[in-house]
Design brief:
Helix content: over 70%
Largest sheet: none
Distance between the termini: 70 Å
Radius of gyration: 19 Å
Length: 178
């Protein structure tokens, strides 16, 4: 893995942003009758959080030392713990495929608690210790920030849209009763 150029190593995690975005765009074009917001929410949950976290799980279980080296961290039991934390996020991401918007909001908030904390840790290591390892800066920071942020935004947008639709449906009935 060290033979790959730094730009490739640090950009790889961006695939977990790009692939779900492209999948959602193509699905929206193929299925114009389905709500685009739901298509995006499901693709993002499964593709970005689910598949991205499953990849991290596999990587930390199969290649723990290489992953620690890629991040610039010491080898320790943290690799095993990170693997299973990510397995939990993968399961939540896959659950998001059939979850309600409120459930997806909860999934996004749970992912944010961990991933935004990881972001703070990566940035601290970057500035406090000069850790510019490919797995500490670059694409992984974008994933850690954007995956939960987009999940939360899509869920909030879905909840608000459902509330507005419900309010529009109730107004004509209330006007006839009033």
């Amino acid at each position: 893995m060290d033979t790959l150029p730094y730009a490739v190593r640090t950009a790889f995690p961006l695939l977990f942003l790009l692939v779900p975005a492209l999948g959602a765009l193509l699905s929206c074009r193929r299925n114009p009758d389905r709500p685009a917001l739901e298509i995006w929410a499901r693709w993002w949950s499964v593709g970005a959080l689910g598949c991205g976290s499953l990849w991290i799980t596999f990587s930390f279980l199969a290649f723990p030392d290489a992953m620690a080296d890629a991040i610039g961290f010491a080898h320790s039991p943290f690799q095993f713990e990170i693997a299973f934390a990510n397995l939990g996020f993968a399961l939540m991401g896959f659950r998001g495929a059939s979850a309600s918007p409120r459930e997806r909001l909860t999934i996004g908030l749970g992912a944010a608690a961990f991933l935004w904390g990881a972001t703070i840790g990566h940035v601290h290591q970057w500035f406090a210790h000069g850790d510019h390892a490919a797995g500490n800066t670059g694409g992984i920071l974008a994933d850690d920030v954007l995956i939960p942020a987009v999940m939360i935004a899509l869920a909030v947008w879905s909840i608000r849209r459902a509330r507005a639709d419900r309010d529009r449906a109730v107004r004509p009935v209330a006007a006839r009763l009033g």
